[in-house]
Amino acid sequence: MVKHRSPKPSIGVRFPACLPGTKFKGNVTQHARADYMHIQDPAGHIPSEEPVFLLRGQDMFAFIAVRFWAHTLQSHPDHDPAMAQMALAHADRMESWFRGLPIAKQHIPDLSASCVLASQEAQTAKVLADREEEEHRDIIADVTSAYRYHSKE
User: Fold this and answer.
1) 100-108 long-range contacts, CB within 8 A, separation 24+
2) Which of 5, 16, 32, 94 could pair with 114 in a Cys bridge, judged by C-beta atoms 3.0 to 4.6 Å apart?
3) Local structure of 99: helix, strand or coil
4) CB-based contacts of 70: which residues, under 8 Å, 6+ apart?
C-alpha cells in the first residue's frame, strides 16, 4: 500500500473526511477511519466497497489484535498455516518495535482532532437539517390541513 501525502489526492478525497458514510470518488479503499483513506491499494486488489481496518505499530493493542487474529485463524479447520505463521511473526515484529519506542511515543489509539471536530460539526449539521426537515413537514401538514378544511366548505 502507498501513502499519498497530498492533502487532496488525485482520487478525489477531501480531508478531513472522518465520518462513516462520507462519499468518495473513484476506486477508494474503505478504511474504518476516514482520515486513513489516503492509504490506498494502487494495484486494486481490494474492492472499493470492502471495509479495511488499519493497525499501526505505535498503537499499544495492535500486536495483541494481530496475534489474536492469527490464533483465531489457526482454530479454523481449513486455515492456511503459512498465513497464520506470517501474522504471528508480524505481531512479534510489531511488539518488538512497540516496546522499543519511548513511552511518550507509545500510543493509545484515538481519533485525530480534525476527525473529532468534523464529527461534531457533522452532528450539529444533522441536528439542524433534521430540525429544518421537521419544520418543513409541519408546514406541509398545516397547508394540507388548511386546504382540506377550505375544500370542505
Assistant:
1) 101/58, 105/58, 106/58, 106/60, 107/56, 107/58, 107/59, 107/60, 108/59, 108/60
2) 16
3) helix
4) 84, 85, 87, 88, 91
Q: Are 74 and 85 in contact (CB under 8 A)?
A: no
Dihedral (CA of 57, 106, 121, 134) sign: positive
CA 97 to mean position of chain CA atoms: 25
CB proximity list for 50: less than 8 A, separation 6 or greater: 29, 30
Query: What are the cell numbers at 124?
Result: 450539529
Peptide bond into 20 cis (omega under 30): no
Q: Is 132 exposed, middle or buried (0-12, 13-18, 19+ CB in 10 A)?
A: exposed
- C-alpha gyration radius of the chain: 24
Instruction: Give tens-digit pLDDT for 87-123.
Output: 999 999 999 999 998 988 887 877 666 666 666 666 7
Contact between 47 and 9 (Cβ < 8 Å): no
pTM: 0.53
